[in-house]
Recover the amino acids of this structure.
């Protein structure tokens, strides 16, 4: 066989293998024998030395041309196979752009925060301002100014957390000291609510916790009466729950109000209907007004303090307080 014939056979074999490759991976497997250093075509170049010198240039050119054709065929086949693969992927791996993406995990507001905000919204709509006070209080603001005498049982170590610091102080046992702070700075007429955290040496049960929240309310103006207090609280509780709630005002005693009442609401617990104490209320005691420099002959006022946890329990139908403090995301998410 002449060189040309041998060359033709080798080239055809390489082209046939290239042509037969069904996908890019198969084509790549053909690459070494078709184009590699030890391919049959390269073998021809190594044999050039055996030819008579005058035949070498022509033979070299013919071999290089064959090599170039195989290379071109290879690249063309590679491009074709890649296009085909892309087309197949576009066809099968369709992206549904209308599909909603997975939702990012977002936080949600705590049921106590949601309840506090709703309480604030209702009172703001009735013209009240939201006031604040510190959680560390003086005994004077927490007790004395509120007409709670030094021998009152609430001041006992068992109820109050006393701070063991040179400056002294206590953790406020209720939000009522905000009344004092606000009235020392503002003259009547005034209407505020003061939500916040309070502390008591209390054991934990379904409706008690040593740390809990209250919402204080205070309104001082001329000729304020118990009727204003009742209608305001009924209006508030109806706005928070519904018009058909059952509320009860029970005569009670607080040193800083006179007369005083306890506000109860019907609570549907697992054990049947019971009355749950939502808060205390009453007409601001004249001594309290005097303590902040307001003349009780000219002004009168009402005040109330509700447990925020209790408000939340009734709002969401909770049977216990403890889960409100356990920060279990599965529990808290239900209130979104
Ligand atoms: C007071 O704290 C008064 N300062 C309320 C007040 C304000 C009366 C203004 C008059 C005028 P009392 O100790 O009853 O009152 O608490 C008020 C409410 O806080 C209770 O009715 C209850 O709803 C809630 N509460 C009391 N103790 C706890 C506790 N350990 N855990 C959760 N909630 C509590």
């Amino acid at each position: 066989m002449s060189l040309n014939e041998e060359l033709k056979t080798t080239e055809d074999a390489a082209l046939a293998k290239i042509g037969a490759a069904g996908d890019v991976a198969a084509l790549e497997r053909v690459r070494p024998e078709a184009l590699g250093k030890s391919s049959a075509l390269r073998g021809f170049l190594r044999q050039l030395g055996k030819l008579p010198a005058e035949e070498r240039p022509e033979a070299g050119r013919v071999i290089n041309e064959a090599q170039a054709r195989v290379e071109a065929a290879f690249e063309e086949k590679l491009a074709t196979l890649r296009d085909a693969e892309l087309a197949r992927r576009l066809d099968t791996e369709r992206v549904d752009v209308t599909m909603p993406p997975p939702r990012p995990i977002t936080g949600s507001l705590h049921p106590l925060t949601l309840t506090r905000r709703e309480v604030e919204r209702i009172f703001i709509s009735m013209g009240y301002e939201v006031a604040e006070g510190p959680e560390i209080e003086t005994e004077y603001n927490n007790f004395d100014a509120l007409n709670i005498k030094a021998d009152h049982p609430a001041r006992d170590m068992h109820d109050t957390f006393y701070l063991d610091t040179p400056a002294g102080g206590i953790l406020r046992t209720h939000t009522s000291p905000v009344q004092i702070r606000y009235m020392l700075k503002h003259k009547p007429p005034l209407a505020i609510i003061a939500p916040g955290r309070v502390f008591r040496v209390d054991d934990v049960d379904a409706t008690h916790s040593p740390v809990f929240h209250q919402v204080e309310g205070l309104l001082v103006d001329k000729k304020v009466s118990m009727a204003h207090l009742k209608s305001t609280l009924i209006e508030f509780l109806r706005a928070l729950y519904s018009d058909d709630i059952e509320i009860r005002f029970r005569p009670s005693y607080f040193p800083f109000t006179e007369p005083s009442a306890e506000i109860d609401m019907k609570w549907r617990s697992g054990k049947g209907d019971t009355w749950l104490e939502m808060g205390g209320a009453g007409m601001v005691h004249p001594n309290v007004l005097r303590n902040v420099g307001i003349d009780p002959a000219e002004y009168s006022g009402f005040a109330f303090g509700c447990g925020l946890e209790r408000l939340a329990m009734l709002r969401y139908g909770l049977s216990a307080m403890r889960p409100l403090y356990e920060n279990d995301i599965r529990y808290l998410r239900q209130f979104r």
The pocket of adenosine-5'-[phenylalaninyl-phosphate] is lined by residues 174, 176, 200, 202, 208-209, 212, 214, 254, 257, 277-282, 303-307, 309-310 (CB under 6 Å).
